[in-house]
Write a structure and sequence with these properties.
Elements: H1 11-24, H2 37-44, H3 48-60, E1 64-67, E2 71-74, H4 84-91, H5 96-117, H6 120-138, H7 144-157, H8 161-169, H9 171-185, H10 189-207, H11 211-234
Antiparallel strand pairs: 1-2
Amino acid sequence: MQMTPIKPKRISDQVFDQIRELIYRGRLAPGEKLMTERELAQVMNVSRTTIRDAIQRLVAKGLIFQVQGKGTFVKTQKEKLQNPLAMAIQAQDVSLENLLDLRIGLESTAASLAASRAEESDIIALEQSLIKMEDDHFRGRLGSHADTSFHMAIAFASKNPLHIQIMRNLYDFLFDGIRENLEFLYTDPANMQSVMEQHALILEAIKKRDPERAYQSMKTHIGFVTRIIYKKFNS
């Protein structure tokens, strides 16, 4: 067996990984402005040079972009029209129903994988998103960002790079879809309560490492939302 020296991870790599993780988990939303270099350096306890190096790599990866005099922002698919998937979606007449059909298969599988592969940090991220959703609901808000973060965190917990990237590419459409779904659902408080309970069941299945239950719980959740949307459109 051939051994190779273990190389310590550079600090800038750790900064890069941490910000990328926040983007992939949906904690930093498309279009959201990042803290300044100085603020990031203070929060992460590193030099501004280290932050600048990580930021440049994130720009090169197409995850963020900079606007002179305005700051650094998370990229949306509107800024990434060269992405074949984004271009294909924009070239089609994609409806909310189309998005929900896609999500049933994509996210049910992600939930199943997350139940097998989620790390403790993934569980914490999911719990935080659920708490934020409950708080938004209590305050009379839609909670669409927290809802989207919950679903993106599940994709991240699948530990499948392709799955994560596909969900990332669909993020804008997912965010708009969830917001529109919640606007429909919010007209009936009982619907919102059901959605909260469904999210809790998904999280419980993932925490209990039950892939089949996680798959079915996610399928039930998106199926519930789909039926509400269809009913609304056809009423």
